[in-house]
Design goal:
2 strands; globular; about 290 residues; two-stranded parallel ribbon; mainly alpha; 14 helices
């Protein structure tokens, strides 16, 4: 039996809100986000570099839209050792890195640059990686404090929820300061995951969330409840209730043919069929 460790990343935390949500599949889909999702979830790594341009394009269109966080989330799943992507990252770095501390200008490009930089693309050692993360946190916190643009500040705050030492601090800060932001419901879903203390309580919170938001559509075309099912599926794996996890995965497959694709689909299909054993691990931060 093949054994895989799933590393939780923030891609599974997809943000939306009833105020901004679409109530039909066709109206919801953002083609650029679909492209990003397909690229990062299929083993066609030579296309990874396109995610950079797509993410910048989404950010430039409307910083207040939910699409922005979907785009940035996709960046956390790119293959950073692919040649075309390294070249694209290097071009971006040569153009914007000298002024990376100032996010008032060229915000979209710099935020995308920071996202890839934070993945460890330049790091040669663990110490290099840690220093990079600390530098990024410093840049983001200073800009969060000084930003006069509320949309930019919201994006920066969302990025800081990846700070492994202060995740809950920045989650609570976001919920307090940006209570009207389209990310709020899914920030709450993320909060349940980070702050879960007791299994039954966590499962109940997610199920209540599904009841409240489940029938709305994300910009990727599936309903919010699919993300709730995904969180529950992984939690059931954590607590070794595998049959319940498989039931959740089947619900995902029935609800959306596009949610589990590429390697992700093969992993969970193998789990259902008994050919893959899944263990939940902890993902990287920033």
């Amino acid at each position: 039996m093949k054994k895989l460790i799933l590393l939780f990343t923030f891609w599974s935390v997809l943000f939306c809100c009833p105020v901004y949500a679409q109530n039909s599949y066709d109206a919801a889909i953002n083609p650029k986000l679909k492209d990003i999702y397909e690229i990062v979830n299929t083993p066609i790594y030579e296309k990874n570099y396109l995610v950079i341009d797509y993410a910048i394009e989404v950010l430039k269109k409307d910083l207040g839209s939910i699409d922005c966080y979907f785009a940035l989330s996709g960046l956390k799943n790119i293959k950073i050792d692919e040649k075309n992507l390294i070249n694209k990252y290097t071009d971006l770095k040569n153009k914007y890195f000298s002024d990376i501390d100032n996010l008032d200008d060229d915000f979209a490009e710099k935020v995308v640059l920071i996202s890839i930089w934070g993945s460890g693309i330049d790091a040669q050692t663990d110490e290099d990686a840690e220093n990079t993360v600390n530098r990024i946190i410093d840049i983001l916190t200073k800009n969060l404090e000084s930003s006069k643009d509320r949309k930019k500040a919201a994006i920066i705050n969302l990025m800081l929820t990846h700070d492994k030492n202060k995740t809950m601090f920045y989650v609570e800060k976001f919920l307090k300061n940006f209570s009207d932001h389209p990310a709020v419901p899914f920030i709450n879903l993320w909060k349940y995951k980070v702050d879960k203390k007791e299994s039954a309580s966590y499962i109940n919170e997610v199920n209540e969330w599904i009841k409240k938001y489940g029938e709305l559509y994300t910009p990727l075309g599936w309903k919010y409840k699919v993300d709730g099912y995904f969180d529950l599926a992984n939690h059931y794996i954590e607590i070794k209730e595998y049959d319940k996890s498989k039931d959740m995965i089947k619900k995902i497959i029935n609800e959306s043919k596009d949610y589990l694709i590429g390697e992700l689909a093969l992993t969970y299909e193998g789990f259902i069929n008994g050919t893959v054993e899944i263990t939940i691990g902890e993902g990287t931060d920033l």
